[in-house]
Amino acid sequence: MTLRMRTPIALALAASTMFTSSAFAEPSQELIDAAKKEGMLTTIALPHNWCNYGGVIQGFKDKYGLQVNELNPNAGSADELEAVKANKGNTGTQAPDVLDVGLSFGPAAKEQGLIQPYKVSTWDSIPDDAKDPEGYWYGDYYGVLAFAVNKDVFPEVPTSFADLKASAYTNSVALQGDPRTGNSVMMAVYAAGVAEGGEPGADALNKGIGFFKELKDSGNLVPVNGTAQNLAQGTTPIYFDWDYNLLAVRDELNGNPPIEVVVPSDAVVAGVYVQAISAYAPHPNAAKLWMEYLYSDEGQLKWLDGYCHPIRFNDMTERGVIPQEMLDKLPPAENYAKAIFPTLEQQEAAKAAVAENWGKEMGLQ
């Protein structure tokens, strides 16, 4: 994704306690004082209605009293890196301090020397497969592939990819489009392949193609793109997308018709964004304080309030710090605990496989 259109239990007490010191750690007074002396944080590409960033920014300002200078809220990930490049020697208001980019842009920014390392105090509770081991970039929030179900059509809601093979779902299951041209659609096919036992990468993607070919042959796959309108009308009463998009659709429809968002029990595949600090940040201490806020329980909960799963979701669930009213708006937490984060290499292999095999297997041009 390059455009910011924004268009992935209980443990034993001892294991849970491992995270206690880091999860509740506060930034040092020295860092807070240094950030306040700088007085400002410059962000870029953070629309207020995406992941509740409006609430996140306001929470940071309220907590620390810093000014937040917001550049181009609708910029894309590539635009963010270009803004860093264009302002290497600029300490003014056009130079971003911090970045929020798609996964592939984190390693690219590191390779180009555009970001600097910093490990937040809650570092250990960020999953290893969602962060650079040296601290140059780290996952901030994610969505998981899910499907929405029109409950007027299907009062008994399917809970897995395997369930969707049943004859009860004839002419009912839809994708958003062609997986060769849309990342979320490709990842839906990938997730189906994981459910079918596929190994990460091309194997999962090819098994996912086999899954949807089976749905097509049985008549379960609708040859119409899944949309909110088609979901509501019953044209595509089941369709796939990232969970945060589907949860927003559910809320917008407000029970007319009733919608249930299902995280499939047999495959939980996540797509993650990452945070980083510019190597040329004019306000490096404010940037570090921003990161501390984002990765605190308070900051993570503000993202969750916008239906974007904070990267420390599993840790916070295990410690029981997520308000029940938030959890009640989401699919069951135990499914999210199984989320896997495909690597860049696995995603590239999947893209190659879908480009080569989707058309010929599905009988398309």
TrEMBL record:
Keyword hit for Electron transport: no
Q: Which domain of life is it from?
A: Bacteria
Annotated SUPFAM superfamilies: Periplasmic binding protein-like II
* Signal sequence, start to end: 1-25
Q: Which GO terms describe its cellular component?
A: outer membrane-bounded periplasmic space
Keyword presence, Zinc: no
Please provide an example of a Pfam family that matches this protein in its UniProt record: SBP_bac_6
Gene Ontology MF terms: thiamine binding; thiamine pyrophosphate binding
Q: Which UniProt keywords apply?
A: Signal
Under which name does UniProt file this protein?
A: Putative spermidine/putrescine transport system substrate-binding protein
A Gene Ontology biological process noted in the UniProt record is: thiamine transport
